[in-house]
Amino acid sequence: MVQLGQVGQLGQTTPAERYGQLIKDAIGSMPMRVAVVHPCSLEALQGAMEARDEGLFEPVLVGPENRIRGIAERSGISLQGVVIEPAEHSHAAAARGAELAVQGKVGALMKGSLHTDELLGAVVGSSSGLRTERRISHVYAMAIPTYPKPLIITDAAINIAPTLAQKRDICQNAIDLLHVMGVPRPHVAVLAAVETVNPAMPSTIDAAALTVMATRHQITGALVDGPLAFDNAISMAAASVKQIVSPVAGSADILLVPDLEAGNMLAKQLIYLSQSEAAGLVLGARVPIILTSRADTLRVRLASSALARLVAARTKLAAVGKESA
């Protein structure tokens, strides 16, 4: 079976082909129930039902039951056999979704029609039981027609101005995801505007520190190098012209951005100017969290769900291994 991370060895492939393989791999992993938190819009409810119909997960709808059933009835969506966990409003739905995950009744959470901050607040709250020693972070798993392999951009949605310690967690979260996707030793490019350390540019200092942290095993499972400008990270020709000697230059699997604004602009430029697609997932909690946008295509929504299923299966296997050790 060709893993998603190996498509670069096969020549250029389309986003449809890359995400198609990802979805096939996910369907072959452990079954999963997902708490869909406050699916009180047509888009949110359709997204959950589409993932169910593709065999990616069994949805548990968490929210006001009458509103959910009303949307389904008006839209011709059948809820036969679907579990609904009643919750009075979005805040209560977020809390109940987190509770279901802590109890092991669901393997992932999916954002419905509530604000992202509201859902994540229930996840990282001191009493939620879903926090880990890691900082939570968001990844975009990009399928770019002009790049010969998948590309992760992080963090473009949660951490606004991460500290060095937080960037370490953001980096490790993305590395662990690529291991699940079949890339045994990802190349991480820590981005900045330039490829040299400049004391006036804190992002270059953080990049250099992260590079050293990887050599000291504070970041594991990947080759990490920076600072690298975007062109040097993804183009061997650009790196060669600038005489940059780096094990990562021109072959990045992960782009670790300096802050949320840079990452968000980079991801959206690729989506809208190069016909790329971006599956989104939140990592670092005890369960993965599926974040989708109303503008996402069906394929992107399914790919985001597939990523969550693969991560949840890996987490469950690791937990079983610890219990039997």
UniProtKB/TrEMBL annotation:
The gene is pta. The lineage of its organism: Bacteria, Pseudomonadati, Pseudomonadota, Betaproteobacteria, Burkholderiales. Residues 93-301 form the Phosphate acetyl/butaryl transferase domain. InterPro entries: P_Ac_Bu_trans (IPR012147), Phos_Acetyltrans/Butyryltrans (IPR050500), PTA_PTB (IPR002505). It comes from the Bacteria. It holds the Pfam family PTA_PTB. Keywords: Acyltransferase, Transferase. This is Phosphate acetyltransferase. One of its GO terms (molecular function) is acyltransferase activity.
